Amino acid sequence: MDFELKTLDLAGAAGEKCDALVMLVGENFKPGKDALSRLAGEALKARDLDPKAGKLLQAYRSAGIAAPRVVLAGCADGSPKKVHAAVAAAVGALRTSGAKRLVICLPADAKEDAVRAAVSATAESSYVYVATKSKPEGRELQRVTIAVADASRLQVAFAGARAAANGIEFARELGNLPPNHATPTRLGEEAKKLAKAHGLKCEVLGPREVAKIGMGSFMAVAKGSEEPLRFIVLKYTGAGAGDAPVVLVGKGITFDSGGISIKPSADMDEMKFDMGGAASVLGTFRAIGEIKPAINVIGLIPSCENMPDGRSVKPGDIVKSLSGQTIEILNTDAEGRLILCDALTYAERFKPRAVVDIATLTGACVIALGGVRSGLFASDDALAQALHDAGERAMDPCWRMPLDDEYAEGLKSNFADVANVAGRAGGAVNAAKFLQRFAGAYPWAHLDIAGTAWKSGGAKGSTGRPVGMLVQFLLDQQGAARPAKAAKRPAKRK
Ligand code: BES
Ligand code: MN
Ligand code: ZN
């Protein structure tokens, strides 16, 4: 979909040729003399329009308005949350209208965060999955104009939001693909394609290279599958070579059957979404490839299937991780941590300023936080704060969870350095404590997105989370202190 930002007052918007026009009306709306103001003003007076967020009033062929369909949408106090709700409701209501061209008028006092909310809500509620349908129905919307009082002032925020929306959509599309399409090989190909289109560097390693490096833990998970594993390395260079990168690590299990510790059949199809972390890394690279911020970012994606087979890893097997630590695999369904630990060790070679792993890691995190906030674990308070704040601003929130050493007690093994599971209690924290053993060389954070990466039930589908949070976090990193470089920079003259 094509987004554009345009300076338009309500009189201008009324004259704009399009298939549908959405006008956001807040509690403090002051009507002018134009046709849209008249419509909204009269509807408010008659109480046919409620300025509460998400309340709608639709009109057809109104006098003096070029758009045949007009949707008035209440946005209450005009906060980003309310703008998001209003736009989502309005775009949702227009879904079946077949409108190709849409204009969305924001309140006259709309700031950067309102523009971001409008773009993300539009993209989110107009997305339609068609990749494996025989007829691509429902993807009519082509062009969306966001109308504001002064476009030049909001252009940077708008461009960032548009790129983030593209990244989120890419992550959703990959997440939604069936597991016979979105194989590790396909993820590698998508990464290569992405790199080519956006000037990124990309390397895709296969079983032989990964064996040579010594990723014994990752290899153990892949053993039961006919699909060859892939280890994807993406590089975005937006700052100097001496600038320590942020490393993003995404869990790329393209199907998690549980392996020999096989899962129950009910809802097992949803384990195609177990590559949501990988999809979010690819989506984030798609966005930063477009924005081109002044930072360096590395993406690491260990990807394979977790399948039962005569060659599968078994409960009780002990493997040697890249770090040298031996791991007793007591439950083959705790496979995410087994592929991530080797990627976390691999990350050390980039001397990163921070490493963030993103994984659909535990059912326990779904129980703890549901689908609203992702679980955030961090060994570094500043990193935790930065991710938390980025999540709030991007409306893709997370919540910090503890990492007390007592939680690691259950990971003790009589036969290896560590076991891959502890008891059920505190399962999301136990998993994070396992990962932490491999992430000691740098500031580290872990996002458990098991509850937020996809929705179940009638709305079953990938959400593209936490691409919004990660893009915002990386943009914020541009301003952050960069010791390596700052030391060489001459002092500023006052
Ligand atoms: N991919 C799952 C986590 C998951 C389960 C996400 C359900 C969303 C919904 C992960 O690989 C897994 O199976 N984790 C186990 C760990 C357990 C064996 C310690 C879990 O959460 O049950
Ligand atoms: Mn599993
Ligand atoms: Zn899994």
Outline the structure in words.
The model is unreliable at 484-494 (pLDDT under 50). The relative contact order is 0.11. Strand 5, helix 4 (112-126) and strand 6 form a beta-alpha-beta unit. The protein folds into 2 domains: 2-148, Leucine Aminopeptidase, subunit E, domain 1; 170-476, Zn peptidases (Aminopeptidase, 3-Layer(aba) Sandwich), CATH 3.40.630.10. The chain starts with a strand and ends in an 8-residue tail after the last helix. The protein is built from 15 helices and 20 strands. It is elongated. Helix 4 runs parallel beside helix 5. Strands 7, 8, 9, 10, 11, 14, 15, 16 and 18 form a 9-stranded mixed beta sheet that branches. Strands 1-6-5-2-4-3 form a 6-stranded mixed beta sheet, with helices on both faces. With 494 residues, the chain is an alpha/beta fold. The chain is 35% helix and 20% strand. The structure holds ligand BES, manganese (II) ion and zinc ion (ZN). Residues 256, 274, 331, 333-336, 360-364, 366, 421, 427, 450 line the site of ligand BES.
Largest sheet: 9 strands, mixed
Strand content: 15-25%
Bound molecules: ligand BES, manganese (II) ion, zinc ion
How many domains comprise the coordinates?
A: 2
* Number of helices in the DSSP assignment: 15
CATH homologous superfamily heading of the largest domain: Zn peptidases
Uncertain regions: pLDDT < 50 for 5+ in a row? 484-494
CATH class of the largest domain: Alpha Beta
CATH fold name of the largest domain: Aminopeptidase
* Rg measurement, Å: 24 Å
